[in-house]
Amino acid sequence: MVYILAAILIFGILIAVHELGHFLSAKACGVRVNEFSIGMGPAIFHKKKGETEYSLRILPIGGYCAMEGEEEDSEDPHALNNQGFWKKVLIFAAGAIMNFIAGLLIIMILYSSAGAFRMPVVSGFAPEFTAEGEMGIQEGDRILSIDGERIYVYSDIPLFLSRGDDNTYELRILRDGEKKNLTLSLPYQEYTGTDGKSYQGYGLYFGVLEEGTLLAKLKYSWLNAVDFVRIVRYSLVELVTGGASVKDLSGPVGIVSTITQVGEDASSWRDALDNILYFAALIAVNLAVMNLLPLPALDGGKIFFLVVNTLSQHLLRRQIPAKYENYIHAAGFALLMVLMLFVTFNDIVKLFQ
């Protein structure tokens, strides 16, 4: 029950933060906001201040920012539909920007107590390792990329080695201030670890640490957030190319299951909290990226239609009628709900397998 409440709280806060981004940007751009609500369902508190009604609703599952001229054209000069191109882009994108900032802030909080960060620098090799040498990899080499994927943080190394199609990898390294390209065979097999015990891996040791100064904490927080964006992009590419299927997607039920797992796998309540917060940061960045996809009903879809209408107005002297655009967004929303129902059903099935 604790983990279910944690999941509800995470979703509620992230959606509220998203809508807060729309609200703040709308106010900054002089757009009239008719209502700003935290939560959904019946209102338990509401107060009108100026032109905006502020509401607190009973279900802690998000919120909304109702702007004048958002759903239909309005004659009000402060309506959204009467604003310029860049103001609209800012307002539509602000929700995703706020989600990304939320994810970044969570990572910064988690890293605030870090004493050091493990660097992607080779510190040694297992006795069974055979790709060491002048033409291979050497101690002190900093791995910059694997198969064209940049290494932002140390955890990227096992991730992209595990995703290789075979045992051969294209590595870009930094050695003595000079960048070099290497083609290495790094088989996944049994090696001897530094503790003398056998393990399954690639035979590389990484023990070089960077002191956890304020600058290092800020740098690794940013790199980790950017790495989350790359993970979402990578997952989308896998979905499109067939490397993953729709059945691999997770909805609210799957996320609650994951939160429960990362919490229960922790050795203490502090570790459980850190794991859940780290996962919440990933969800926040995921929401930011997904909302900017150029799909109907999403903020990215609204930006896409804004660009199309602007180009159409300049080239053809006409725009897509607002009612047709609303039809498309409504259809897109319906399809997203169908996908959500399918994913939720699939998550429930997984729980009983």
UniProtKB/TrEMBL annotation:
Keywords: Hydrolase, Membrane, Metalloprotease, Protease, Transmembrane, Transmembrane helix, Zinc
Keyword Acyltransferase: no
TM spans (from-to): 89-111, 276-297, 327-349
Location of this chain's protein in the cell: Membrane
Peptidase M50 domain boundaries: 7-339
Keyword Transmembrane helix carried by entry: yes
Topology in the lipid bilayer: Multi-pass membrane protein
Similarity annotation: Belongs to the peptidase M50B family.
Protein's name in the database: Site-2 protease family protein
